[in-house]
Specification:
It is built from ten helices and no strands. The protein is 52% helix and 0% strand. The radius of gyration is 20 Å and the shape is elongated. The chain has two domains: 33 residues, no CATH class; 87 residues, Helicase, Ruva Protein, domain 3 (Orthogonal Bundle), CATH 1.10.8. The chain starts with a helix and ends with a helix. It is an all-alpha fold.
Amino acid sequence: MKYFYEQIRATFVFAGIDVAEHGLFSGLRGRQIAGRFLSTRTRAFGYDTNEERSDWKKLVATMEQSLRLHRHAAGSLVRLAPYLHERSTGSIGALDQLIHQAANDAIADGTEKLTKKHLDGVLLDTAAQGDLWVQPASPGRTRKEAS
């Protein structure tokens, strides 16, 4: 990577968990690499302030624009932004998983539009669930039953 950084005029983006502490920047070579890059720590989207809610709605709107469902009403996911934040815990990956799986269900059942019922039916990953035992927004379904 050191060679690529010195020889190629490009922007490099490395992503992972604890990359700086336990991988890319560890050891002697890692310290040399760390001297050539900047680190940016990220976190899930918040939903407490007007600015955070606005940023979340922009993200939801951008994802909604990429949907290619024949009967989906534009803006319907943005109206569900609070629900989507609660279900995904502000995680882009969980939001993407939620929308993608619900869209597949809408295609499979022929409705060709996302509804709250489609979204409620998606079982999200453990990190997005928050409570590891009960799946949010899925009444009567427990984590143990889903496993």
